[in-house]
Amino acid sequence: MGAENIPSISEPVPSSIVQFAAADKLINICRANSFWPLTFGIACCAIEMMATGCARFDMSRFGAEVFRPSPRQSDVMIVAGTITKKMMPGIKTLYDQMPEPKWVMALGNCAISGGPFAFEGQYSIVLGADQFLPVDVYVPGCPPRPEALLQGIIELEHKVSGWKRWKDPEASAKA
Amino acid sequence: MSKPIQLGPDETFVLNVGPQHPATHGVLRVKMRMDGEYIVDSETVIGYIHRMHEKMGEIKPYPQYLMNLSRMDYLGAVGYSHGHVLCVEKAAGIEVPERAEYIRVIMVELNRIASHLFWFGAFVMDLGGFSPLMYALQDREHILDMMEAVTGSRLTYCYFRFGGLYNDIDDQFIDAARRFIPRMRKSLDKYDKLVTGNIIFRKRLEGNAFLSKETCRKYGASSAVARGSGINFDVRKNEPYSVYPELDFEVPVFHECDSLARYNVRMAEIEQSLRIVEQALDKLPDGLFMAEKAPKIIKPPAGDYYQAVETARGSFGVRLVSDGTKTPYRLKLRSPTYSNMHLFDETCRGMMIMDALAFMGSLDLVIPEIDR
Amino acid sequence: MIAETTKQALQALFPEPEPVVEEIVEAPAETEESAKEQKKEEGPRPNGVIERDYKVHGYHIDAQVAVDQLIDAIQILDDAEFFIETITGVDWIKEGEFEIIYDFSRYDFEVCRIVIRTRVSRENPIVPTITGIYAGANWHERETHDFFGIKFEGHPHLIPLLLPEDADFHPLRKDFKA
Lengths: 175, 372, 178
Fold this sequence. Notes:
By secondary structure, chain A is mostly helical. Chain A has helices at 21-33, 44-53, 88-97, 109-113, 146-161, 169-174; strands spanning 76-80, 103-107, 137-139. A three-stranded parallel beta sheet of chain A has the order 1-2-3. In chain A, helix 1 (21-33) runs antiparallel to helix 5 and helix 2 crosses helix 5. The radius of gyration of chain A is 17 Å and the shape is globular. The relative contact order of chain A is 0.17. Chain B has helices at residues 53-59, 66-72, 77-92, 98-126, 131-151, 171-196, 199-205, 213-219, 223-227, 235-238, 259-283, 336-347, 353-362, 367-371, and strands at 13-17, 29-35, 38-45, 160-161, 164-165, 303-311, 314-322, 330-334. Chain B is globular. By secondary structure, chain C is of the alpha/beta class. Chain C contains five helices and eight strands; from the N terminus they run αβαβαβαββββαβ. Chain C has a six-stranded mixed beta sheet, covered by helices on one side. A two-stranded parallel sheet of chain C has the order 7-8. The N and C termini of chain C lie far apart (48 Å).
């Protein structure tokens, strides 16, 4: 009995001698259903993030609508936009200030690889959030559609708790 | 605005706002020297999202650069593309069919409404009211739906080409646009009742951040920042381009010079943009949407060219220095918010911090557009 | 007309005011010989005021001034109530010079765009600041300093604006390599 029995937890929860696997599982499901993202927009993708939080796409269906302006209160960092070298230390600080357990989502091509701004002679940007942060979910797009962000949230839920909202349509078609 | 009591320099402290702060609309940082709740001095630090569009302009050939303009200002993307294509077309002597120019204007104005709606929601959210954002974004989604069906993207449109457009509009778009106009007018009435008439909102903004005409001129302010200070300046009227001279619209000007005036200008502009869309749809001529003779490789003759357009955020200018090759020698993008934001440091002196943040909201900032 | 009066005021800066009106080049009539002649005529542009075709270039008056005439020229525009549009630079590396371009326009309905340009050598690029006249030139000059390394003498706060605080490179110079 231990944390390793819970499937697909990549970020190990700080372990203690006494383990409560069932309780951990329950807590993880709770965590997965109530992400508190950090209000942190950098560029274009942040607008789609706001659109996702608003009326039509309604992120609260997945329990992730509580955007917190302070890193101390949030557990998901959605890196939405190009990271410049000038901004990088700030993002690192924000990440360090977030309490464990915490996850990072790279939203948009800029946060994945530098996107359209990676060119010869570029001196200003960091080529992807994974250069300095442990990224859990990548959401491609320039900018990603709100549906893509929601899919990213669902993937993150799956990663955190091993639990899925619905069956993978491709896998069920094969079976 | 009352002046703060002058204390010794030892009793002031420095407050750092940003670069991650919900009120700065992105990665803007302001260092403020505070005396209690009053701002003694402030210094804006920008460049946190500086991605060097201008260098990319020197490296990429003209058609490849089209996508950059929409990433510069993602809220009013089409307006910026318009400036760029007009400048290059002028330099290279490319004729644009009239239909294409009308469709461009329709798109620019729809995008302007979308941009103002987003600003409206975010501005009221800055002041503490959350629900208007929900209404505003709901209306904005209707515009995005229409534009997406034609252009293929929701936010960062790359729709204009040198000599025309990527794609023609269809009857479905025209129907949707016609249905949208009365719907938006109804919504404007709703916003009027919900926000503009709200006594808390008005008291908060009346007399907030006085901007004189002279300050506007010295800093080169444009858009609602200038028009809220009684300056009747709109590039669409002052320096007519595209098919704007054939369309009947007014430039709303308010003389109060405060944040409420800037708010009123933008809300009145939504109505004017609706009028433009309405007329442009009526006048829309048949014909080509892309010039037949538009060259694939663009080589403007050597020289320098300037084109200004009125975007949702103000007077946007493109200065193109060409040396006759297929990439520009120098491409300068004059961004309106850069000048508008520059006002902030001087104006916010002596203001209380919450007034300064309301003022910052009224400037309609898009940070990647400042930093480029 | 504001364009006329400003042009005259700017021309007064030069000892021999010779208005050079841009010749409209007739494209079809251009033979090889005339093309060669034109190339010979091209050279460093002398300082002076040129009236440009607005429909082609997008501005009316194009004045190239010497560095020491800059403040006077800007003062003329300030007195005539122009507003500052932008300041930028161009790196003419072959000629070993930087060009600094100042754009001005008007708020009223007399459309008149004025471009003031000045050239300095690449080795020692120093220009006087115009922040004393237009406070809004502050950021534009800092940006130009960032990108080209042009020093604006007398500028109150010439530190990197868009680049990181410790930046020592100038990315828009043509010989810049990341």
